[in-house]
Amino acid sequence: MSVKPKTPDEIAHMRVACRLAAEVLDYIEPFVKPGVTTGELDRLCHKYMTEVQHTTSATLNYQPAGYPPYPASICTSVNHQICHGIPGPKALKKGDILNIDVTIITPDGFFGDTSRMFILGEASILAKRLCQVTHECMWLGIAAVKPGARLGDIGHVIQRHAEGNGFSVVREFCGHGIGRKFHEAPQVLHYGRPNTGLELAPGMIFTIEPMINAGKAAISELGDGWTIVTKDRSLSAQWEHTVLVTETGVDVLSLSAACPPPPALVDGKIKVAQPLAAPTASPA
Ligand code: MF3
Ligand code: CO
Ligand code: CO
Questions:
Q1: Which of 34, 46, 149, 210 is the most buried (most CB within 10 A)?
Q2: Which atom number of ligand 1 is nearest to the Cα of residue 58?
Q3: How far apart are CA 142 and CA 208, in angstroms?
């Protein structure tokens, strides 16, 4: 697997792309309330991207080999949906958990990719714990990023934390390199063994996006050709950031004003590039 580090110019463009993706999530957060449909959230995000940001959605009409074109500007995955949920006419209700995954393309052709969980009103203790543990999994993975570390180190800490809490890690989907393309090498697995896999080097940019199930890890695909659900219909959660390997550690590129801050369990392990503004959303 060859992974070319980004140039300083490419990194500068990626900072902008990833911040814009995060700002779509900041924008949509106040609209995520019981009664709203995922289709309406999609319409609002599309309008914000195109009319306010002058970005385009990377997911709209995205068509990897063997798939139908993806029909929406964001992915909305509710409850037992793991990822790639297609927005539609169904209204969200109190107690639902929702992942919104945003990937934008800047006018100069760079991709930014990030996703968050949203809890509608009061959710069950299990649902809240799943969202929180998954957020912690992502941040533990981020904290493992530094030059000389290896991809297996990231997967290992994520798997250990998920399984240690009685949850399971989805195997079929992974994080990915990103830049002028949506999905590049390397594949960033959310399970693995320490000290295995690609060695990280400054300038690499990739996503960390663990999908964690409350029940078993097995998945199934719905008839729409996109939506992935847990086979046992247990709840699933996902968080995603795009990160840069720096000379000394990691820089999280998809931060924004309303982005939930790192959890206490990574205190002192992360150097964030820019201080986070007061958070308005919380992971759980
Ligand atoms: N944003 C997703 C990721 O994190 C990919 C979504 S592809 C889509 O890689 F077609 F389902 F939108
Ligand atoms: Co991604
Ligand atoms: Co994504």
A1: 210
A2: 12
A3: 7
Q: What is the pLDDT of residues 113-171, one digit of tens each?
A: 999 999 999 999 999 999 999 999 999 999 999 999 999 999 999 999 999 999 999 99
Give the mutation target among 76, 81, 82, 83 for probing the ligand 1 site: most ligand atoms within 8 A of CB: 83
Structural domain includes residue 272: no
- Which residue's alpha carbon is at the smallest distance from atom 7 of ligand 1? 59
111, part of any domain: yes
271 domain-assigned = no
Whether 3 maps to a domain, the answer reads: no
Of ligand 1's listed atoms, the one at least distance from the Cα of 176 is: 9
**Ligand 1 site, residue 15, Cβ cutoff 6 A:** no
Domain hosting 45: range is 8-266
Whole-Å CA distances, 212 to 34, 117, 177, 221: 24, 12, 20, 16
CATH of the domain at 244: 3.90.230.10
Question: 197: left (phi > 0), else alpha (psi -120 to 50), else beta?
Answer: left
Number of domains in the chain: 1
Q: Which amino acid is at 228?
A: I
Q: What is the pLDDT of residue 279?
A: 43
Q: Does any ligand 1 atom lie closer than 6 A to the CB of residue 110? A: no
